[in-house]
Design brief:
- This protein is of the alpha+beta class.
- It has two domains: 65 residues, OB fold (Dihydrolipoamide Acetyltransferase, E2P); 212 residues, Orthogonal Bundle (MetI-like fold), CATH 1.10.3720.10.
- The protein has nine helices and six strands.
- It has a four-stranded antiparallel sheet with strand order 4-3-2-5, with no helix packed on it.
- The longest helix has 32 residues.
- The protein is extended, with a radius of gyration of 30 Å.
- It holds the Pfam family BPD_transp_1.
Length: 336
Amino acid sequence: MTDTAKVAIPKGFNKDLFYKVLFVVLLVGTCFSFYWATTQTNYIWRWNRIPKYFYYVETVEVKAEVEGKVTSITQKGADSVVIVKGDGESEYYTMPTAGIIVSEGSAIYMGDTLGTYQEKQIGMLLEGILITIEVSLIAIILGILLGLFTGLARISTNPCLKWTAITYIELIRGTPLLVQIMIWYFVLGTIINSMLNKMGLFQIPELWFGIASLAIFAGAYVAEIVRAGIQSIHKGQMEAARSLGMTKITAMSKIILPQAFKRILPPLAGQFISLIKDSSLLGVIAIRELTKATREAVTTSLMPYELWFMCALLYLVLTFTLSMFVQYLEKRTAEA
């Protein structure tokens, strides 16, 4: 019989600390390796240009729209009104007094600059992240509502409700989200807006067709999560509630759903994190969410490394925040 060889571990050796240090070494080594690889391509990093894609101050030039002469400059507080009169027409322009570069009696031609002023603007990335948050938040709320009702219909004894829910779930889960977005925008969107136009009503912006496609896509997956959560609760819970005189609806809302909610939180969090990342597909229908905004910024700045890294970091912040919020809800429901 051969004894199994064992590696002697020195006394006082802290395995936990060792593996933590090993993780840090691997992380630093990976980052250094990537940095070294970029130096081999002669790439010049321009991180100092990133802030302007979140916020910048633009110098706006006020240009004359008529040809004539400056007849008066009247100051009103910090601003002044410049009046330019031409042949039978006149225009007035309001701008900060400090930015005026003409004087009374100056000859003005169409397109001449009368003055300048500073205007604060949000950059492409900030605009993109705000649209991503808006789209994702609305789609998540609608997806929860749609998924809840569809999940309940999925386990209903009513054949019409059950078959309708099954058809919706299988149809949505069996087709790619990108195809659904295209159908919503180019087919359903065109039909709906054409009908609204014939009735003399307002047109629905493409943003809402994008939200609808995401919400309906998420609703199908949420429905299956809800169904699985409800069916994981023992049937005796419903039977006990009914024996106490509760109706089926009351028992479902008071007894079954609260217990199921604790079990479906983790898969729901995963689904909504995926939804935030799936919102990047809305760029194909001209919605300037974060990914499309980054792509436009890369095209104009030729800074692919910095901007795509920043894009990934912003998505990570969104998904990590949602994950932490769900973990907080899990702890609260566990304590309840």
